[in-house]
Amino acid sequence: MKAATTDTFAHRLLAWFDVSGRHDLPWQHPRTPYRVWLSEIMLQQTQVATVIPYFQRFVERFPTLPDLAAASTDDVMAHWAGLGYYARARNLHAAAKACVAHHGGELPRDFDALHALPGIGRSTAGAILAQAWDDRFPILDGNVKRVLTRYHGIGGWPGLPAVEKQLWALAHAHVEHVPAGRLADYTQAQMDFGATLCTRARPACVLCPVNEDCVARREGLTEALPTPKPGKPLPEREAVALLLENTAGELLLQRRPPTGIWASLWTLPQADTDAGMRDWFAQEIAGDYDNAEELPLIVHTFSHYRLHLQPLRVRKVALRDTVRDNDDLRWVARTDLATLGLPAPIRKLLGNGS
DNA sequence: AAGTCGGGGGA
DNA sequence: TCCCCAGACTT
């Protein structure tokens, strides 16, 4: 069994790109630093198909960096309107002016100088240098994060600093294997690969040029990676459950309805409130509810809420004469519990010797 | 570390 | 509806 490797990744990706990559995007013809920069800014959090018409109109109105620097704010914003994230346009304009003021009207071919310009972060600076000059810099955008988490089997949400640090290290390791003169193609290849093959949903693993070495594919984790962003805190709900024992030591179980939480499973009689539980008890049971013993609180997490379930135990009770043992309400010997479908937290409670 | 910015597309 | 997208910046 082979582990994910950095030896072959770049070469295989480039071979795939030569045949199946995108070679006709507007900013590739011609591929000037200014046009690469503009495209990278427009493509931040924005899909290619959305960007293309904006890019065409923008470069037609502002063909060069000095043209952009000389334009009015209103003119620039008018050509950005509809793209969203308008701070990008303001930063772009400010950066153009800074380039005219400090870099002779061109984008600097220096990582730190580029990174210092407004709107250009670590990944965008690398993308510009690699694509415009074939300089050896890695990128780490959403596509690359998805590809690397899968290829190397990296768990944890990629937005976490610790995970991101790991991914940058892997991106660096891969880029070291790219042949000189192919950094621009490699950069584009990663994005094309992530956008067309290693997609978020239903990736085309059969066609993947690196599927032999992909950890996620080998371990069946393709759908699970990258780890999704943690959601908002779950709503909290409370409920009461009754652990009822008859004189024979049997437990009273109730079958859940065929839909909803724990559908058709056997659980303890349960209610949303203590008052509701008391009413049900008075209706169905012969015994003393006030004699109930509080058992340890059960906290159980569902996909859409967290349940705090308070179990109450009452011994030596019976069903009222009007209520019969039936399909939905049964006395069960402890030794027979294993034969019934019980939710995990309930099974744990009953197996605890409670 | 978390919040903010935005419109579009897919599940 | 929710989540994600060629992220960067501020608090």
Topology:
Layout lengths: L8 H12 L12 H10 L5 H14 L3 H6 L2 H8 L6 H16 L8 H5 L6 H12 L8 H11 L8 H15 L7 H14 L18 H5 L16 E9 L6 E5 L10 E2 L2 E2 L2 H11 E2 L6 E2 L3 E4 L4 E9 L3 E2 L9 E4 L11 H8 L3
Parallel strand pairs: 1-8
Antiparallel strand pairs: 1-4, 2-3, 2-10, 5-9, 6-8, 7-8
The structure holds a DNA duplex (11 and 11 nucleotides).
What does this entry look like structurally?
With 354 residues, this protein is of the alpha+beta class. The protein folds into 2 domains: 211 residues, Orthogonal Bundle (Endonuclease III, domain 1), CATH 1.10.340; 116 residues, Nucleoside Triphosphate Pyrophosphohydrolase. Helix content is 42%, strand content 12%. It contains 14 helices and 10 strands. Helix 8 crosses helix 11 and helix 9 packs across helix 11. It binds a DNA duplex (11 and 11 nucleotides) through helix 2, helix 3, helix 6, helix 8 and helix 9.
